């Protein structure tokens, strides 16, 4: 007869053998939402643009119901807005949201860079800086904007956390909507490129505290600039 100590172990073994691990696969609607989030972050979709279910469904090869679900998800993230009897539009973010967004950015970007990362992850940060330099040399302001987004995404990716990457994807989409107004100034992104270089160099040299301090000061100035531009 099994002892009392043995019984729980045997039961646990039976339960473990009978269990089936399930890997959660994102739904089609979630993948559509991810694609739209990417297009927002890259600046392909601008504030106030009208989105139609039929067009996106055709472009992505999915059903209109799937697109409708994706729209609902992005509406909860305040990236899209549905106007009754008018349709779905890319959100025009309110000035009052700026501080909240930058609070999130300070929390996840600064902590990520101060913890450092693998050589591969650090190389991705450098690649984003070099991408920005090439865009600046070509006077490609949109490309420079995308490179700047990639830079900040790569900083969060240092942490190798899927959850943080998901949060940052939404934040980057929101930031591109804010930056759309700012980029009427052709030098908006190029003004930050030098600081991206300094932050990256500190990261590469292993001076993580300096990298974090530079990034924190960067984000504080960026918030002040956005607050001024949006008239808060």
TrEMBL record:
Entry-linked CDD domains: WHTH_GntR
Query: Entry's InterPro entries?
Result: GntR_C, Tscrpt_reg_HTH_GntR
Q: Which domain of life is it from?
A: Bacteria
The name under which this protein is listed is GntR family transcriptional regulator
Species this chain originates from: Paenarthrobacter aromaticivorans
- Please give one Pfam family short name: FCD
Domain called HTH gntR-type: residue spans? 26-93
Q: Which UniProt keywords apply?
A: DNA-binding, Transcription, Transcription regulation
